[in-house]
Every structure is written in structure tokens, then in C-alpha cells.
Inverse folding.
């Protein structure tokens, strides 16, 4: 009887060791608030079959406040992957975040996803034609902890209106609903277009978009923050907005914690940046047409915002990185 017990125990140990050796590594992917593209990134990658069925690791999408929260949780290792704006990656790495001198050096770049333009929604006929006209108004400024909030604070502070507005920290969908209920005079987004939240607002209101490109150019914003690019939101993107609207954008980057296995980063990238992976991402949202192997490091300066070792190998193998 004793021999049988020892044999059973030995077998349990062997099988336990075998199971542990083949257990999948579980990675959390930081997304964003409801109605934003960050969450679509996380969800899309989680469900893509070559990622979902990878024998070595699994990916679990998890909602978050957005870019700033993702920067911090990726740096700490609470999440392995996430989407963070290039501005936050650069400022965070150098200890230049607003009221935060910590240096987030464990956040490494994987690749460029898309450009996220600033959008400021108001009602037609409101008399608001510039962000400077928002003084004394109720404004949705993005979720606390999000890149939208941080960028709104940065831009409005630059314009001298941050302390002159009635700020409402909330996600895009909540802001659109509050706007529709006339609880807000305007709301700010930093996300790809067309935004579901703006589409929602346009269904119940006659909306207009503010020319943020002019506000930025007239006040030296591009000189103060050179990592922003210029773009135009085309006429017809949203119901009732029949003119092109100049704005500026930050780049949304896929990032990873420095300790994530380079082999796993490489495998995830091989899936996402394959022809099938890119087509899958476009099915999730047309915004991801901006993704390509050729533009995989668009707007990324590896000396300023270093790449993950797995990403270095991937982009070198693709001929993108020399």
C-alpha cells in the first residue's frame, strides 16, 4: 500500500511538472474607455485566432482609463501590452509628465498603430468658433487618467483656458450622452475618426467641430510640442459637418513591458502585422487602415523612445529597421 502511495505521488509530481512546463503565459492587454479606439485595439488582438490559439501565451483585453493609466500599468508590469500615445511615452520616459516626475523606463515601443486627432465637438449656432470661446462653459475633457484628459489639459493650459472652464472628466460615450442631454456645451476627444461617440452626438444634435489646427498654429503649440502632427478631418465624416476641419494628432503606439519575453512579442507582432492580421484589424475599425509593415515605425524615434527587443528583431527582419 505504501509503495502504491509513493508511486501515485511520484506520478502526480511528474504530471504536475509536465503541466507547468507547458502552461500558457497569460498576458493582460491594457485597452481604454468605452467608445474609444484603444479598447478596440485590445479586443481585436485578443480575439484574432493566431493570437488566441498561440500555444505559448494568451492575451486578455482589459479596459482602462486610457493612455496615461496604460503607461503606468505597463511600466509596473500590471499589464504586459497596451496602447499609449507617443507623447506620453516620451514625456513619461523623461520624467516630464504633468505633476509626475517618475521616469517610466520599462515601457518599450512595439509599433505604430494610427494617428489620433484631437476633436472638439460643439453645437451649431452656439457661438463657439475657437477653443478659447469655452471660458465659462461646461466641457467634457476625457476620462481621468486618459491620454485624452492629459492632452486636453496640456492644450487648454497652453491656450490659457484650463482653469476657466467647468471641467467634466468622463469617457467619450458618457460625454456624448451628456452633450445630447444638454449637460455639456462641448466635449473633447483624442481618438481616431470617425468616432462612435461623435456619431452618437450627431444623431441627436446639429454638431460642429472646432478648427483646433488654427488654435494650435496661432499660439505656437506645434513649436512647444513638436511630436504632434497636423491633419484634416474631412467634410462628411460626421452628419452635418460639411467642411474640412484642421486639427493635430498624436500617434497611438503599441507598447510592451520590458520584461515580456521577446519571443512572445515577436510572435504577437508576426500575427498582427501579417496580411491576415492587418485585414482583421481593419474589420474591427477602419482606423486601422493606417497600420502597415512599411509604416510600422512611423513617427517613432528609437533613440528617444526605445523599442522592445522582440520588436527590434521583427522590424529588422522586415527590413524596416536597419
Amino acid at each position: 500500500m505504501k509503495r502504491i502511495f509513493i508511486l501515485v505521488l511520484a506520478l502526480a509530481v511528474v504530471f504536475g511538472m509536465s503541466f507547468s512546463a507547458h502552461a500558457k503565459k497569460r498576458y493582460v492587454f491594457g485597452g481604454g474607455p468605452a467608445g474609444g479606439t484603444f479598447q478596440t485595439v485590445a479586443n481585436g488582438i485578443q480575439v484574432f485566432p493566431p493570437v488566441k490559439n498561440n500555444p505559448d501565451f494568451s492575451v486578455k483585453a482589459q479596459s482602462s482609463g486610457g493612455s496615461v493609466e496604460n503607461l503606468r500599468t505597463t511600466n509596473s508590469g500590471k499589464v504586459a501590452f497596451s496602447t499609449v500615445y507617443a507623447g506620453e511615452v516620451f514625456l513619461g520616459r523623461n520624467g516630464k509628465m504633468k505633476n509626475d516626475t517618475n521616469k517610466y523606463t520599462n515601457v518599450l515601443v512595439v509599433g505604430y498603430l494610427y494617428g489620433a486627432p484631437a476633436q472638439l465637438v460643439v453645437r451649431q449656432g452656439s457661438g463657439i468658433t475657437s477653443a478659447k470661446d469655452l471660458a465659462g462653459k461646461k466641457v467634457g475633457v476625457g476620462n481621468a487618467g486618459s491620454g485624452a484628459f492629459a492632452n486636453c489639459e496640456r492644450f487648454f493650459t497652453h491656450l490659457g483656458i484650463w482653469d476657466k472652464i467647468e471641467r467634466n472628466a468622463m469617457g467619450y460615450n458618457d460625454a456624448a450622452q451628456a452633450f445630447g442631454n444638454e449637460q455639456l456645451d462641448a466635449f473633447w476627444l483624442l481618438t481616431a475618426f470617425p468616432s462612435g461617440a461623435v456619431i452618437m452626438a450627431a444623431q441627436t444634435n446639429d454638431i460642429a467641430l472646432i478648427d483646433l489646427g488654427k488654435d494650435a498654429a496661432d499660439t505656437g503649440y506645434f513649436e512647444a510640442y513638436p511630436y504632434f502632427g497636423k491633419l484634416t478631418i474631412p467634410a462628411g465624416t460626421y452628419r452635418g459637418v460639411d467642411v474640412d476641419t484642421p486639427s493635430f494628432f498624436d500617434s497611438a503606439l503599441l507598447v510592451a513591458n520590458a520584461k515580456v519575453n521577446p519571443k512572445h512579442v515577436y510572435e504577437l507582432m508576426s500575427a498582427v502585422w501579417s496580411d491576415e492580421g492587418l485585414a482583421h484589424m481593419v474589420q474591427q475599425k477602419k482606423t486601422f487602415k493606417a497600420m502597415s509593415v512599411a509604416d510600422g515605425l512611423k513617427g517613432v524615434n528609437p533613440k528617444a523612445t526605445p523599442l522592445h527587443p522582440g520588436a527590434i528583431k521583427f522590424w529588422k527582419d522586415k527590413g524596416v529597421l536597419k
